[in-house]
Every structure is written in structure tokens, then in C-alpha cells.
TrEMBL record:
Domain Acyl-CoA dehydrogenase/oxidase N-terminal: from-to ranges: 21-98
Residue ranges annotated for the Acyl-CoA oxidase/dehydrogenase middle domain, each copy included: 130-218
Protein name listed in UniProt: Acyl-CoA dehydrogenase
Entry similarity comment: Belongs to the acyl-CoA dehydrogenase family.
Biological source species: Paenibacillus sacheonensis
Keywords for the protein's UniProt record, in alphabetical order: FAD, Flavoprotein, Oxidoreductase
Gene3D superfamilies: Acyl-CoA dehydrogenase/oxidase, N-terminal domain, Butyryl-CoA Dehydrogenase, subunit A, domain 2, Butyryl-CoA Dehydrogenase, subunit A, domain 3
Amino acid sequence: MKRLIDTYIRNEAEQARVRQAEELAAVFAERAAVHDREGSFPFDNFADLREAGYLKLTVPRAYGGEEISLYEFVMLQERLAYGDGSTALAVGWHLGQILHLRTTGKWPGDTFAELCRSVVKDGTMINTFASEAATGSPSRGGRPSTTAVPADGGWRITGRKTFSTLSPILDRFVVTAYLPDEDSTADFLVHRSDQVTLVETWDTLGMRATGSHDVVLDGAFAARDMRLSGGKGVDDGAGWMLHIPACYMGIALAARDYALAFARSYRPGGMEKPISAIPYVQHTIGEMEVELRTARAVLYAAAERWDNEPDDRPALKPELGLAKYEVTNNAIRIVDLAMRIVGGSSLSRNTPLERYYRDVRAGLHNPPMDNAVLYGLAAAALGEADE
């Protein structure tokens, strides 16, 4: 019988990539508990991802990458998170940023080409550090307190960034900074140097191995041509951010499968049949399936539309937001139901369920936030009367 997780595989090429991702996920699952408990960054996982060519999946073919679609990106991230949510979420930011730059043309062509070639040749990764303690997430529209001032040959950047996922492993990254002389905000590509300090602040309830520490810039230098376009380019609707719900969907699938295996095998008190024969357990499994199948249908439909309707991508923002909202909240519910099936032992650190429970809740705090999605849907609905 076909596995539920394989429902959305469309062809042999996707099947081959999925199997590779599943092999990586199986290895990562064996390491996940240690990295979670220690809060350590999984350098070993990222060495494996580089070796497997995973880091170049969204790089354009012109630069030696695979140039996969958003639909495939979602599918592979879901599989990777099935093994380790932290690793999947962290690498998703890198792959997603490359996809975003590929579709928007935000960066100068030469700068993007150099980055892509470095990803393919050296396993370079990238992320944008924008959040700050004082201003919160950039999705809320706050002006960064990090500043960039003119210097000989470029800019000197000073400030402190929070939620800097992948920070332990990156040799370069993008920062958003305010330019006082221009009263504007821009993005800068910064290379790690003595003026960049990693402060290991990441000690959280869930997603403990993403390396999302604070990064302090004390006059860090960015060359003149490393000032990026500051957000200009084609509006792609931020479809690349579907890597976030894909990750939480993968965690929910892992919790669901764990609970199913438990229900099929557990026979307490000398029962003749396993607990899967109990009507209440079957009802709970049915509830899990409703949440899971609904969320995946919304997620994959949104990804497919984004791929197939490039001219309408800005108009897809409500649908993309809905996918994140539906998947994240349903994933939390699925893990909760899985724990109800397994019972008190699900709280033990000897099982992965308690980690799934902690990790999946982090989705509520990844953009777009629930209230932003709801306001966006409301605006879209109210705007229909004006068309």
C-alpha cells in the first residue's frame, strides 16, 4: 500500500530526490536527540548535506545547481524534517534565500553569480539576519537599530542581530541596516571577520539545534559593491517561505507515524489485540488524518500554483499565508493527538515525541505570524468588492 507521505510525488526524478532526502533524514534522526539535549549545532549533518549536493538544490542550473521548483523544495524539506526539524528549518533558510534571489533578481547579477558558484564549489551557505531585540521581526516593519555609515571603500556596520539561524557555520551573511545619512534601510553582504562576534544565546524550548544565536557587528566592513538593492526586484509573493510550513509538516508526519506504529503493537494488560482495535484510538487516528491530509493538500496546492502562475505570484500571498497558518496549527494538533494515543510515555526523552511536541510549537513564531495571515485574508476578501 502506498505511504501517505508519498502522495504528492509526481515523477521518477522527484522519487529519486525524495529517497536521497529520506536517507539523510534517517541519519539525522539518530543524532537529533543529542543535538537537541546539548543545544549543539549539527555540523555533522551539514557536512552530509554538502556531500549529498543538497545545498545547491535551488541554485540555477546556469551556475551548476539543480534549480528545483518550489513544489520539490517543499517535498524535500518535509522529508528532511521527518528526521530532524532543526536541521531542516536551518538549511531551509539557505535554500529558500537562494530560491528567492533566483526568482526576484534582488541582487546585482555578478554578486549573485559569485555566491551561486561558491555554493556549488565550496558548500557556501547564506542567510539574512534582520531581527533585533528592540525592533523584533522585520515582518512587523520596524526600523533596524543596526546602522551603516560610509567608510573608505564601503560601509561600517554596527549593531546586534537576534534569531540568526545558521550563524555558527556561515562565512558570510546579509544584514539589514539603517543609513542615518540617507534616512533609509538597505541590505549588506558581510563576510565574517574580527569585527563580527557570535554570542551563543540560543537556549530555547524547541528547535534547539538551529544555531540561531545573536550576531554582534562592531564596525564590520562591507565593501561598496556589497550594498545590495535593499529589496528591489520582482515581487515573488515570498513563496520561498513555504519551506517553513513544510518543515512543521514533516515533524507532524513523524509524530503521526510513531503513534501509528505504537498503536499497532502496544497491548497493555494482556489485551488480545493491540490498542489500534480500540474505537477511541481509531477515532483519534481519524482526527489526525483529517488535520494532516487537509494541511498537506493546502500546502502542495499553494506550491504548485506558485510554480505554475509566475505572473500572479504577488496575488498568491493570501494563499501562501493560509498554507503556513493551516499547516503550522494543524501540525501542533497532530502531535498533540499522537501523544494522546501513546500516553504518558510520550513525555519521556527516550522517545522522539516530546521533542516533536517542543519543536512543532516554534512554527507559531516563524513568519508570517497567524494574525498577519488573518489580516491578509480579510483584506483580500474585503477587497473583492472593489474589483
